[in-house]
């Protein structure tokens, strides 16, 4: 083992540790490691940044625009609502929902599908007294399984496809993965409708819990003439910097002022509505001239009468709010909304609102203006932004919506028949969307998740360092020494398990990029078809079921479903084992 190999291995271990302990955002961690490799001369700039021009990564960028355009018009969402309303039982509704959702994820990136359907299915469940937790983890799982059917179903497949093309090897055909994808989807459905359904928790919906806890969220104070801040601004009166409490609304006679500005003038008789850590209410009571209204009938429902609404927002991996306290991010001024509470791991964080450092998957309860959902529904700061009382506006242009779907289906057909490559087909699709004004260039840019692309492209460079230094070959030989005497089936299982562990610890695309060079080296040494190892790695990198952090869709449903971390372990572990056994068996039979 050379010094260069030891150095690369140490850097990768440091990278894993930093990712596991969330020391910085994932894309910054991987990109930083890549920069180190360039500065130390292990990689030339061309080798390091070749991933930025990889066909697979560029296709993912185009698919973000395609999925965003289709999501914009809400056609699939409208159809799903009507389809669900015809259900005769809960399990019947589950099948009517999951089957088309999984098929959709075979042709669209599964992340926007889960983002679109999560608030819709949650509202549908709560209106009928059904626990959303019975639907949302399965929603994530079936879209993951559906994404394994086609080349374009998930970013992992496209990344591996692009890496194979870069090595002048034949990539995946559009339906090549279906030989494994369809069987594991069928097995996944059977499991989720039987054993998995019994293991799923029956947690109450988020809005239902909020209504039960409503008195814990707000406190009301009346301004007396003796208050020193009468006729002063909120900031001058010292009501902007209270420890653990936020002034979210002022009720003045028949008028409501919300969100409250720093320059708003305090008047005698004003009713000040505070939110935050209610255990610090004593601080307010010590201020002369502020009287606590212990007999107030005001609750969260009343607050909505002031031209504002209660909104649930799930913090995304790409959010600018991460690693900062709510106060440091200047949330109120940035989004014109007040944070009532933060839920993490199905529990409300009992801390001062302004001091909470946000993490991906956190659920924010906001008091926001009536246009908040429309303004931030496609923001990279949040996975989901939805009103707790009213369903998302579905009044998109249906004609344009159907046209966007028709163009996509036509392009898929052209790829299937071999007229166009996947990259060219998606490039043409986006071009048609723009020239027909189905999407504006500004909207298209907003749909692209540049942080995700940076992570994937940087991971390409890290994978290249493994190959160039011989580390990939060394690791492959190490696996062969251990597994070869036990047979090809054990080797395939070992590669699957290692890839799956990486997926749970980091991200699916990064796991695929790091494992593919090892898989190709093993295939070369054994003198067998490399495609079998490529398929194993593609499926294993996508099949993230055991934790909420390994795959974006698992994290998206984490908060809205009210899940605990252990729920994923309990429900996902049997499914992960079933998928692994099925995949390894089929790959061994078909390619070896």
UniProtKB/TrEMBL annotation:
It is found in: Membrane. Its main location: membrane. Keywords: Membrane, Repeat, Transmembrane, Transmembrane helix, Transport. Pfam families: CitMHS, TrkA_C. The chain crosses the membrane at residues 5-21, 27-44, 56-74, 94-115, 135-154, 174-194, 402-435, 447-466, 478-499, 530-551, 571-591. Residues 205-290, 298-382 form the RCK C-terminal domain. It is a multi-pass membrane protein. The keyword Ribosomal protein does not apply. This is Di/tricarboxylate transporter. It comes from Alkalibacillus filiformis. The lineage of its organism: Bacteria, Bacillati, Bacillota, Bacilli, Bacillales.
């Amino acid at each position: 083992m050379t010094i260069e190999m030891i150095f690369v291995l140490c850097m990768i271990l440091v990278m894993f540790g930093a990712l596991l302990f969330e020391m910085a955002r994932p894309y910054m961690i991987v990109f930083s490691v890549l920069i180190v490799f360039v500065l130390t001369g292990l990689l030339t700039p061309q080798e390091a940044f070749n991933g930025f021009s990889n066909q697979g990564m560029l296709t993912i960028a185009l698919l973000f625009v395609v999925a965003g355009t289709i999501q914009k018009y809400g056609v699939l969402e409208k159809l799903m609502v009507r389809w669900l309303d015809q259900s005769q039982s809960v399990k019947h509704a589950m099948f009517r929902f999951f089957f088309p959702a999984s098929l959709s994820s075979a042709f669209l990136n599964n992340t926007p599908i889960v983002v679109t359907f999560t608030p819709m299915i949650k509202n549908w469940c709560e209106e009928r007294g059904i626990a959303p937790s019975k639907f949302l983890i399965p929603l994530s799982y079936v879209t993951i399984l559906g994404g394994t059917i086609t080349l374009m179903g998930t970013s992992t497949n496209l990344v591996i496809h692009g890496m194979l093309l870069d090595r002048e090897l034949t990539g995946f055909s559009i339906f090549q993965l279906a030989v494994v994808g369809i069987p594991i989807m069928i097995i996944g459905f059977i499991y989720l409708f039987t054993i998995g359904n019994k293991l799923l928790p029956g947690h109450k919906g988020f809005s239902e819990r909020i209504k039960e806890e409503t008195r814990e969220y707000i406190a009301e104070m009346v301004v007396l003439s003796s208050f020193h801040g009468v006729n002063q601004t909120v900031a001058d009166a010292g009501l902007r910097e209270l420890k653990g409490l936020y002034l979210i609304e002022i009720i003045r006679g028949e008028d409501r002022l919300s969100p409250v500005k720093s320059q708003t003038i305090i008047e005698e008789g004003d009713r000040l509505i505070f939110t935050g850590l209610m255990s610090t209410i004593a601080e307010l009571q010590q201020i002369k001239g502020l009287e606590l209204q212990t007999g107030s009938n005001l609750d969260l429902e009343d607050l909505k009468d002031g031209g504002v609404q209660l909104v649930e927002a799930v913090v995304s991996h790409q959010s600018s709010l991460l690693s900062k306290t709510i106060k440091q991010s200047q949330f109120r001024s940035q989004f014109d909304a007040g944070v009532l509470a933060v839920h993490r791991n199905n529990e409300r964080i009992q801390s001062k609102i302004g001091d909470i450092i946000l993490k991906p998957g956190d659920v924010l309860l906001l008091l926001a203006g009536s246009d908040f959902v429309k303004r931030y529904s496609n923001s990279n700061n949040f996975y989901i932004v939805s009103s707790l009382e009213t369903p998302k506006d579905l009044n998109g242009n249906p004609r344009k919506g159907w046209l966007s779907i028709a163009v996509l289906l036509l392009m898929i057909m052209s790829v299937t028949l071999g007229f166009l490559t996947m990259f060219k087909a998606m490039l043409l699709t986006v071009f048609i969307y723009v020239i027909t004004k189905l999407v504006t260039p500004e909207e298209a840019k907003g749909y692209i998740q540049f942080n995700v692309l940076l992570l994937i492209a940087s991971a390409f460079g890290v994978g290249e360092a493994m190959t160039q230094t011989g580390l990939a070959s060394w690791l492959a030989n190490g696996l062969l020494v251990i597994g070869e005497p036990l047979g090809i089936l054990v080797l395939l299982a070992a590669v699957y398990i290692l890839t799956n562990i990486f997926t749970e610890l980091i991200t699916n695309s990064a796991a695929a990029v790091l494992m593919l060079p090892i898989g190709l080296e093993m295939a070369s040494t054994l003198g067998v078809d490399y495609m079998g190892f490529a398929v194993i790695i593609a499926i294993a990198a996508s099949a993230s079921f055991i934790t909420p952090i390994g795959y974006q869709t698992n994290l998206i449903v984490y908060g809205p479903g009210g899940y605990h971390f252990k729920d994923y372990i309990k429900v996902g572990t049997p499914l992960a084992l079933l998928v692994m056994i099925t995949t390894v068996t089929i790959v061994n039979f078909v390619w070896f």
